[in-house]
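Work Package 3 (structural annotation) set out to generate three-dimensional models for the target panel prioritized at the project kickoff. During this period the team completed the workflow that converts sequence records into discrete structure tokens, so that structures can be stored uniformly alongside our sequence database. As a representative example, we reproduce one entry of 272 residues exactly as it appears in the project archive.
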Amino acid sequence: MQGDANSSGRKVAVIGAGHVCLGCADTLVQKGCQVTIYGIQNFKPAEDIWQEKREEFESAGVKFVPNIGHDKTVNDLLEEGFDAVFIDIGLEMDTKMKDTPGTDLSGVYEATDFLIRANADLNRLPEDMRTPFEIGKRVVVIGGGNMASDCLRTALRLGSEDVTCLCNCTENELVTRMARKEGAKYRFLTQPVKFIAGADGKLAAVECIEMKLGEPDAQGHQNPVPVEGSNFSVAADTAIISTTRDGVFTGRDYAGDGKKAALAIDEYLNKK
């Protein structure tokens, strides 16, 4: 591995230290990015990879932080100055809807937890994560971007019949082609405000409010603002809460996935 002498100055956090993360970091370094690889509590990289690669990565300028902990979020990393974040979806890093009523209902899941249980060998997970999620026929995924797309496509492949993405951005801000090709639907400029229980105490619907683009700010950006009195409900027996932050990418299992994600990150950073 050799870093690009003409460093781009872009900083990327890579969460995890397995094949997919090392593949991502390797390609990012070659693209001139400053990479920090974060470990995570109770997660250990494959020993043979670690011994072979760590010295090589460090000589290329990669920083290693042994434990990111479970209390740090994607938002924390972006606010600390990272331009993008790559997450091994076997790790738990979500942007939470802490103040939204009903997030504790049965049928409301966080994206990484959902993707872990849907894609991983359950016998290799911690004991408290070995129970598969019960996924209903009507699924909503809240958020946008790479991870939301993964959730939409996974839900469809698990047999859900009606899968919809609820996101508070506009259509031109997202890449939706692959998820739509598999049958996912989108409702843009939509903000969930409450998860509603049915008679059995489980999730039955998601209350939302319509959004519109507000006045441009000093940089010309138009942020979404609520449309007063526009509340409506979407029937759902499963809701998956994904991160909605730009600059967040995910991958699973193989170094090749990490390299593909790194190229997507490089393209994203070049457009910023």
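Confidence is low (pLDDT under 50) at residues 41-46.
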